[in-house]
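Lecture 7 notes: from sequence to structure.

We start with a single chain of 175 residues. Read the sequence below before looking at the structure.
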Amino acid sequence: MNWSDYKTALQQMLVVTDIYGQQMFDALLTRIIEYAELRCYRSPQLDFLSTRTSDTSQSTATGSRVLAIPSRLIVVENLNLITPAMATLSTDGFERVPLLRTSRAWIDATWPAGGSTRAPAQYDTYWAIYSQQEAGDEGSASIPNEVIIGPTPDGQYTAEFLGTFRPSPLSEQNP
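Now the structure, written as tokens:
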């Protein structure tokens, strides 16, 4: 089934015939597809649909323990920091430091002061999803979009996120 077949079938199922209903349908169609696709990608029973990747588009900032999750990732499975500071995966002699996953509460208790910085070290640097399952506006759960790192990095390190990413959604441009 391609884009036009899907759109026509959904219009017929929803009995969209008037001009105002058509306008509303067109406005909501991308959200309907987005919801369905994300639900499929997150389901453990449908993990064969998942596509795994690594993303090195983010880097830490000196003295900041917060790091944005790349927007195309759906599920973050692992996080590495590339050392030394300012190195990339193409730098000669780079080292990949795998971070250990923990909870935000543990990082907050262990390193309450974000100002104390340290270079990332294997088996001694941790990460946690910052906003997982926290109540957002009107009690809805917010979408995790940041991680925190403990201890706070002492420089700018390339972050290598590993996980499931979202392929291009079904659309008129991607039928």
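The longest helix spans residues 19-42. Keep this in mind for problem set 3.
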